[in-house]
Amino acid sequence: MGSQEVSTVDWQGKHVTVAGLGVSGIPAARALHERGAIVTVVNDGDDERARAQAAELEALGITVRLGDGATLPPSTELVVTAPGWQPDKPLFLAAAEAGVDIWGDVELAWRLRGTNGREAAPWLAVTGTNGKTTTVRMLASILEAAGLRTAAVGNIGVSLLDAVLGEQEYDVLAVELSSYQLHWAPSLRAHSAAVLNLAPDHLDWHGSMDAYAADKGRVYEGNTVACVYNAADPATEELVREADVEEGCRAIGFTLGTPGPSQLGVVDGILVDRAFVANRQKQAQELAEVTDVNPPAPHNIANALAAAALARAFGVEPAAVRDGLRAFRPDAHRIEHVADIGEVAYVDDSKATNTHATEASLAAYDSIVWIAGGLAKGATFDELVTGAAKRLRGVVLMGADRALIREALTRHAPEVPVVDLDRTDTGAMSEAVEHAARLARPGDTVLLAPACASMDMFTNYNKRGEAFADAVRAHAEKSA
Fold first, then answer.
1. pLDDT tens digits, residue range 365-376?
2. Predicted structure pTM score
3. Contact present, 370 and 388 (Cβ < 8 Å)
């Protein structure tokens, strides 16, 4: 199926099982019901919130089964699943045995685009282990600066179904896709797509690194204009080589160094394009200055280059790249500067929930007091600590799996002072900030980049970041 073709499915009377309530399940159930499908929603949970959601759907005539997400309803002709459900669920095994197709919310959105009487907008897709949300939001900002009607949608928390079926008409969509979503999206064909990076993550879901990488690589299948890869991450380029793309689709690299032909990169503090120019062997087009990127940390400049590459693939002029990057403001808890106290900067990167993200965060500063720890999710920390050792003024550890980081520090950075907080209550953050402040010297950065998930102590990484910011502000008041 080509990128601009619109799928036609006769939904009238089709028995569809939707797996999971929530952000994707409820819009999917509604959309299918409105098109005449006979919809049954199955959901593992049976709590108060689920019962309220179920009541709303049942009022429309949709069947909902709470507390049973394992059994395939009789007569099911198609399963549409929420992205988080693991592939080895009994429901999916039963579907596969019965020869029933399984689609994710992204696949459903792709199939339904253009069916509401509006022209289907092309998708510029972004995936990768880290940086997806920032890159997609940068891309949307650039597209808006070019005067295009667009939105940042997908795994970013905005329903793709709402975007393709809503009243708003778009020229192009900036789409964030997780490996979960790509796993269940066999017919997705983007205009252009980027894989930002690859590092071990969600291996419990995918089963292996190879399977994880393969699902990420699905984003390149059928691309029509550009497959954007990270020149510093050969695995992303390999995925481009393996992809079956449309004739004429180009491989476009991005690099923090001087770009070669068909690449975007950095020269003397300038973001430049040697891919979408008339003579890429000899010419480079200035796009923006490094200082136009907020914040100008190395990994964020890489995000900006990836976003620029996708925008340029869509024909956006250089001035719009600059203006879009200048207008962009990062989400909270992503290298967010909280305060300067006594010539020490305090930075919240609570979103750094794995070692790959934390490696990028630590690389952005020269002298760091690092606050880390939480749920390791099976990660190891030797490589992370080895790479950051020379930058560490001190380390404050907290959370359930802090011992794993402490052991790596003992092995690879034994001279770095470590404060080990034997606490997993939310109040530990205030103590962590006080210890970090004592370790810091003028010119240092106290950096919350946990390299771990937050759920041992906090509801989510947002709450962890808020606790850090509150503790920093409390410390500032005491220091005043």
1. 999 999 999 999
2. 0.81
3. yes
